[in-house]
Specification:
five-stranded parallel sheet; Rossmann fold; 17 helices; globular; Arc Repressor Mutant, subunit A; single chain; alpha/beta
């Protein structure tokens, strides 16, 4: 792997590119490439339209090509002098990645503790052991962010009540020539390329649709594509499934059949200490903590999560504190809005607060025309 990259220093290669040239499975190539990246012996770049991660050589790649070393994915240990087999390293001996991790979209993810390990490392260990994981918690707590940070090769299915078997496995689509071709879905792609697959909002998907996934997760590790000549698809090493579940969301049902497929189920809530570290207004974080405690007691149904707190921070920077506080009240469910408003009033020291609302019409002289607007252009022509 390192030799291939070192011999092509000006190229960026996908897992598929390297698998074809090396004659190895996509899963094996993925593991090797990500191991080089973790050791700092190769660089991972952006993504093409295919959604595959790209890799390229860096100044350390040529030296890495001189000695073959095998180490478990998910570790960040320095390069050893010799290794001949993949081994399991005890948790206490594994160097931990605790700094921010840049996700595919450019956002930073800040790892949290899970079973005395950084969460991204714990998920990689579970992947190595082929133990499927269900992440559950309120929307906006970072479930998707965690999976994206842990698995750079991730494919995602955004589940809802309209998700079909075709959305998972594939379906026929019309080609430019006028005929029809079978377009494989993300489940098949993840299986054949040995990639991680996130079924987001899995509990919104019909149980009949989810049943198409189960054969890929059990001992068979294969599915039959009935719509495409009964083709059998076998999972390559590295294929892994994670699901997300938002309890309490309308239509979200965790069936026994789905739950039993995920041996490890991890609850995720908002890390309010992280919110403070990200310099979100301490008063608003205090409001969120208070409301979250009321949710735990069953007195409320909603509290701001990290997603809402980050949105507050951005809104405050653009529109000011008063508007950001009003918007925080406005995004609360109607039945919880009064309680949220009371908490904001007490924490922020304002007399009253209401949802962000348009006011009366302004006089024309007080309105600044947006750049490029019709009014601006008209004034420019009349000068």
């Amino acid at each position: 792997m390192a030799r291939l990259l070192a011999d092509r220093p000006g190229d960026t290669l996908t897992i598929g590119d390297m698998a074809r040239q090396l004659g190895h499975s996509h899963g094996a190539v993925r593991n090797a490439a990500l191991t080089l990246v973790r050791r700092g012996e190769a660089d991972q770049g952006g993504k093409r339209g295919t959604g595959q991660p790209e890799f390229r050589a860096n100044p350390k790649t040529a030296a890495a090509a001189q000695t073959a070393v095998i180490s478990p994915p998910g570790t960040h240990s320095p390069r050893a002098q010799a290794a001949t087999a993949r081994t399991t390293i005890p948790a206490a001996a594994t160097p931990r990645q605790t700094g921010p991790i840049r996700r595919a979209g450019g956002q930073l993810y800040h790892p949290r503790e899970l079973a005395d390990l950084p969460d991204v490392e714990a998920l990689n260990r579970l992947r190595d052991a082929d133990v499927p994981v269900l992440l559950y918690g309120p929307p906006g707590t970072g479930k998707t962010s965690l999976v994206e940070a842990a698995f750079p090769d991730l494919l995602t299915v955004a589940g809802d009540g309209d998700t079909t078997v075709g959305d998972l496995i594939g379906e026929y689509t019309q080609a430019d020539s006028g005929g029809y071709v079978f377009q494989y879905g993300p489940l098949v792609t993840a299986m054949t390329e040995g990639r991680a697959l996130l079924i987001d909002d899995a509990t919104l998907i019909s149980p009949k649709v989810l049943a198409a996934l189960y054969p890929a997760m059990d001992g068979r590790r294969q599915i039959q594509v009935k719509a495409h000549k009964g083709e059998t698809i076998k999972a390559e090493p590295g294929f892994y499934v994670v699901a997300g579940h938002n309890p309490g969301v309308h239509g979200s049902v965790l069936t026994e059949a789905l739950s039993s497929r995920f041996s490890v189920q991890i609850q995720i809530g908002t890390d309010y200490d992280l919110a403070l570290a990200l310099r979100i207004d301490a008063r608003v974080v205090r409001v969120a903590r208070h409301l979250a405690h009321q949710v735990e007691l069953g007195e409320l149904g909603w509290a701001p999560q990290l997603r809402e707190l980050l949105s507050y921070q951005k809104t405050e920077a653009v529109l000011g504190t008063k508007a950001a506080l009003a918007n925080l009240v406005g995004i609360a469910p109607l039945e919880d809005r009064d309680a949220v408003a009371d908490a904001v009033i007490k924490a922020a020291g304002v007399k009253k607060i209401a949802p962000l609302t348009l006011g009366k019409q302004l006089p024309a002289s007080a309105v600044r025309q947006p750049p490029g607007s019709t009014g601006s252009a008209h004034r420019g022509r009349s000068r």
